[in-house]
Amino acid sequence: MPRIAVVQQPPVFLDKERSMLLAVDLIARAASEGAEMVIFPETWLPGYPAYVWRLAPGRDKAATEAFYALSHANSVYRSRGDLAPVIEAAREHGTVVVLGYQEVDSRISSGTLYNSIAIIDADGKLLNNHRKLMPTCPERTVWGFGDGSTLKVVETAVGRVGTLICWENYMPLARATLYAQNIEIYVAPTWDSGPFWLNAMQHIAREGGCWTVGCATPLEVADIPEGIPHRDEVFPDPNECINAGDAVVYKPFAGCHAGPMSREKGFLNADLDLSEVATSRRRFDAMGHYACPQVFQLHVNRAAQAPVVFS
């Protein structure tokens, strides 16, 4: 029965180095409290680009470009080993880590950012790195698009884990792709919160018959460093709560197990009985006896996509 710790703590906003140190500390603290799996929200490192919902790219060009430049400069290059501190922390503490971060892929071009989720096993092995397939609305001014090669459920030290990011979880075919891989722990890092999101998490737990974890970064204006350019222009109310967090865990085909943790900071801890996954699917198994393959079939292209092929 693995114990998970869902991180509900903001990073050092748009500061990769300090946020990385904080991530390592949070993993150590969670592990010391018995956590076998630590889960971070969407683009926790170096911080979700909340400014995209407040700025018009043409009208607010100076502020948009300043935030983007700072965000890009503090993004993660896996090819340069930027994730090494988190990987080492997972190995040192024997803890599975699911980390939402903003990625730069310099293999072809370093100009595009990606919204990524890394699943790191307790031995420090990177098992999967999923990129968000479809950024939502103004997020498309910041992030590129992922492909089907990372729609994977992986075997970890705590069970079979898969992830979809934020509104990817509203994509029924993406969910079905994970359900079809015998997922046990479904992780949904997000920037969303509130009753509609919580309802979606409960639906997924029932539909997929899996433990379902939703988590967003709790963020107040006070958490954003004062030295960031255009800070007061974009976030003028010093007392504003930008995101409540609402970390939550739902049981397979059942109700709420832990949380929601709203406008609080710390960890949401939960013990997951994985035997409940198979038991819940006796009644409804979306990819088993309820799949109806004589009527429906889903074809998933899991080939990695590249704009240039060198021969």
Overall description:
The protein has helices at 16-32, 61-73, 84-93, 172-179, 195-208, 231-234, 275-281, and strands at residues 3-8, 37-39, 76-77, 96-104, 113-120, 126-131, 153-156, 159-163, 185-189, 211-215, 219-220, 241-243, 245-250, 256-262, 266-271. By secondary structure, it is α/β, with parallel strands linked by helices. The protein has one domain: Carbon-nitrogen hydrolase (Nitrilase/N-carbamoyl-D-aminoacid amidohydrolase), CATH 3.60.110.10. Strands 1, 2, 3, 4, 5, 6 and 15 form a seven-stranded mixed β-sheet that branches. Strands 7-8-9-10-13-14 form a six-stranded mixed β-sheet, covered by helices on one side. The protein is globular, with a radius of gyration of 19 Å. It starts with a strand and ends in a 30-residue tail after the last helix.
Features:
single chain; 311 residues; Nitrilase/N-carbamoyl-D-aminoacid amidohydrolase; 6-stranded mixed sheet; 15 strands; 23% helix
What layout of secondary structure does this protein have?
Elements: E1 3-8, H1 16-32, E2 37-39, H2 61-73, E3 76-77, H3 84-93, E4 96-104, E5 113-120, E6 126-131, E7 153-156, E8 159-163, H4 172-179, E9 185-189, H5 195-208, E10 211-215, E11 219-220, H6 231-234, E12 241-243, E13 245-250, E14 256-262, E15 266-271, H7 275-281
Parallel strand pairs: 1-2, 2-4, 3-4, 8-9, 9-10
Antiparallel strand pairs: 1-15, 4-5, 5-6, 7-8, 10-13, 11-12, 13-14
Helix pairs in contact: 1-3
What count of structural domains?
1
Order of helices and strands: EHEHEHEEEEEHEHEEHEEEEH
Give me the Rg, rounded. 19 Å
User: Which residue ranges are poorly predicted, with pLDDT under 50 across at least 5 consecutive positions?
Assistant: none
- Gross geometry: globular
Mean pLDDT across all amino acids:
95
CATH superfamily: Carbon-nitrogen hydrolase
Helix content: 10-25%
- The CATH architecture designation is 4-Layer Sandwich
Count all strands and give the number.
15
CATH topology: Nitrilase/N-carbamoyl-D-aminoacid amidohydrolase
**CA-to-CA gap between the ends?**
49 Å
Total number of helices: 7
- Derived structural class: alpha/beta
The biggest beta sheet is recorded as: 7 strands, mixed
CATH class annotation? Alpha Beta
The proportion of strand residues reads 15-25%
